[in-house]
Amino acid sequence: MQHLTIFMDIESSRSYIDELYSSDVTKVLEALITLKNSVIGSNRQKSSVIQQGIVPRLLQLMSEQNWDPNIRLEATITIGSLAKGTSENVNALVEQGAAVALVEILKEVPIGTKLAEASLCALRSIFLNPPAPISALPAEMRLLSRLTQITREGSPTARACVVRILSIWCGGPIEQEALCAAGACNAIAALLAPKGTTPPPIARALPALDLLAAMCFENANVSQVALNTRYGDKTIPELLTLLVSRDKPLPVAMGAARCITFIHRAGALPADDSRVVFGALPCLARLCTKDMPEDIRATAAETLAYLAEVDTSLQRLAAISNHLMSSLADIVNCPSAAAKQGAFKCFASLGANDEDIRKRIIETHGLMVHVVNGMNNPEPSVRLAAVRCLHSLSRSVQQLRTTFQDHSVWRPLMQLLSESPGTELLTVGSSTLCNLLLEFSPAKEPMLDQGAVEMLCNLTKRPEAALRLNGIWALMNMAFQAEQKVKQRILCCLGTEQMFRLLGDSDTRVIMKTLGLLRNLLSTRQHIDAIMNEFSSQVMQAVIVVLEGSYPAEVKEQALCILGNIGDGEKAKDFIMANEDVLRKLVDYLAHPESKLQEAALFVAGNLVWKGEAGCAARQARLAELGVLRALKLLRQRPDAAHLHDKVKTALAQFNELT
Q1: Cα separation of 221 and 266, whole Å?
Q2: In the 8-state DSSP scheme, what is residue 23?
Q3: Measured on CA atoms in the order 485, 489, 492, 496, is the torsion positive or negative?
Q4: Which of 189, 259, 601, 653 has its Cβ near the most Cβ atoms within 10 Å?
Q5: In this structure, what is the dihedral angle of CA atoms 77, 78, 83, 87, given to the nearest 10 degrees?
């Protein structure tokens, strides 16, 4: 029946629709007014009009400069009405060029006209339907200057439209810088300023705050401009401080605190600035409390998480502000995904650096049950936030040994990571695995049984450097003081080809962790001998690649330490002694100007010449022949190596029959 009704509506409107194409101006205007009235408040009628293919004619009528101004206005208002329909309606308008046509009108009509205002209203409606047609509004200085002029001089409706459009449009550094250059900060300051003692109305302040936040987010230059922009005798941060007070509408206080947060995080305001410490932070903590609306609490928690994310002093201050811990624990129980996400993120930020705060989070509020539930939540954003929270809390040695084990948090985490998660979740989750796989963590053994080795080895093959780093880092932690069977499983699964690829990685951190893995694999004399017996050629080749390559000193130091570990093996040291090239490099590094490389080479030499072990005399003679003994004596004489003299003396003492 519905389709039949639409069909009947279309047929009954045929007469005035035909007149839209008339050459008679009066008939066109009357038809437009009739059409406009028919679509107001009816999504069904809006859809019918779009389906009839009338939009191109409407765009033509509103765009032609030689048409009667009233026709242009009515056509534009009709487009604006259609833009208030369903998402499908708006998408159809965008596809047919409505957004571009509206922007073109804004380029040429006087800014104070009804047509300009109608165009702005229509464009705002289109932009409010995601995804907004960002490309329809080019970053042209002349256009942006006209728009910012409207925010200063236009009608209240026109101002609100421009600010809302620009706040959606401003999605990156190009748009941020363009708006800043066009004078948007000055316009925003004017919108946020009180009139005498009367604060700006909420309809004016909210869009302005959204635009300011969009402009300042992660942009140091724009944030600095905002910091110094004045309206009257007050800078923008001072205007924002007035708006975070308790007597302001909640959305306004929230928006102002968010702007201060973004300006701080962009580097324009220090963490100890009063506008951060006494303005944004307590406001956000207050907006998290139980008597606030859920949407405000959700946004406040997420914003507070961002504010305190990297600064320990703000984390400690927030943790004792306005019963925040209790508020966040309550927000986790809210039904909306946004609330849970905000609370988890805030807990993650608060516990990032301080062990006492982490302990309070877990012990006071029983958060781990919520974290486990969060990792099983159907909403991806909640799962990611829960894993972020777990990652933050996993930095606690005590919690790894107790609470995490009690709740088996590794189980849902492993399940999440095995389900082809997105890159962001995989990155945070694998970072958490690095902590869960530390030697003292009870989760280590059950995670091995669940295929952790294979999962981590696969991560080392990912194109993203962060994932390769996390994969090899977690393997390094897993290998630390592990059983021999675990070490051999890692080596077999990773494979020597992949190990060599990692040693040639573009990220030095990946190379360092790969060498760290080798060091951990080659620890404990029995393990060293067993692994070298099976993988000696590959291990020695890996070390030589680093020692001969153009790597930083700290990387070469790791390679020498691996040799030192091999030299501690009962039989493994023979693989070093059989490689004259490596032994000659050892002499070179004992004389190296870098102290850390001297010390690492000394560690290798000391293990190779240690007396009392089988074959020590032959090794000492061979090393003396190649110049190691002489290099040690020279090192003892160097004043810049005074801190190594005791170790040199110990090594020389092993050569008692040769010195």
Answers
A1: 8
A2: S
A3: negative
A4: 259
A5: 170
Confidence at residue 528, expressed as pLDDT on a 0 to 100 scale: 92
With the C-alpha atoms ordered 650, 653, 654, 659, is the resulting torsion angle positive or negative?
positive
Residue 97, judged by CB atoms within 10 A of its CB (0-12, 13-18, 19+), counts as: middle
CA 659 to chain centre: 60
Q: How many Cα neighbours within 13 Å face the side chain of 394?
A: 28
The partner residues of 417 in beta bridges, in order of sequence, read none
Helix (H, G, I), strand (E, B) or coil at 231: strand
Q: Exposed, middle or buried by CB within 10 Å (0-12, 13-18, 19+), for 9?
A: middle
Cβ atoms of 31 and 17 within 8 Å: the answer is: yes
Instruction: List residues bridging with 231 in a β-sheet.
Output: 234
Question: What whole-number distance in Å separates Cα of residue 31 and Cα of residue 35?
Answer: 6
d(CA 300, CA 322): 13
Distance, in Å, from the CA atom of 93 to the CA atom of 423, rounded to the nearest integer, reads 34
Cβ atoms < 10 Å from Cβ of 95: 11
What per-residue confidence (pLDDT) applies to 72? 96
Asked whether the bond before 131 is cis by omega within 30 degrees of 0, the reply is yes
Helix (H) or strand (E) holding 258: helix 250-265
Residue in the structure block whose two tokens are 């040693």: 503
Structural domains of the chain in order of their starting residue, each with its CATH number: 1-137 (1.25.10.10), 394-521 (1.25.10.10), 542-659 (1.25.10.10)
pLDDT for 3 beyond 60: no
CA 625 to chain centre: 56
HEC profile of 308-337: HCCCHHHHHHHHCCCCHHHHHHHHHCCCCH
Q: Are 340 and 334 in contact (CB under 8 A)?
A: yes
Residue 353, burial from CB neighbour count under 10 angstroms (0-12, 13-18, 19+) = middle
What is the DSSP code (8-state) at residue 132?
P
Q: Measure CA of the first residue to CA of the last residue in the chain; give whole Å.
A: 107
How much is the average pLDDT of 571-593?
A: 91
Amino acid, single-letter form, for residue 475: L
Diameter over CA atoms, the chain:
117
CA distances from 616 to 528, 579, 658 (A): 18, 16, 12
d(CA 344, CA 338): 10
pLDDT score at 259: 98
pLDDT tens digits, one per residue of 216-236: 999 999 999 999 999 999 999
Per-residue pLDDT reduced to its tens digit, 348-360: 999 999 999 998 8
Query: Is the CB of residue 285 less than 8 Å from the CB of residue 318?
Result: yes
Cα–Cα distance measured from residue 222 to residue 219, given in angstroms and rounded to the nearest whole number: 6
Q: What is the pTM of this model?
A: 0.85
State how far the Cα of 625 lies from the Cα of 373, in Å rounded to an integer.
66
Closest listed residue to residue 324, CA positions, set 343, 307, 337: 343
What gap in Å lies between CA 157 and CA 118, rounded to an integer?
A: 10
Per the DSSP assignment, residues forming a β-bridge with 234 are 231
Burial class (CB in 10 A: 0-12, 13-18, 19+), 655: buried
Euclidean distance between CA atoms 274 and 279, whole angstroms: 7
With residue 235 as reference, give the H or E element that holds it. strand 234-235
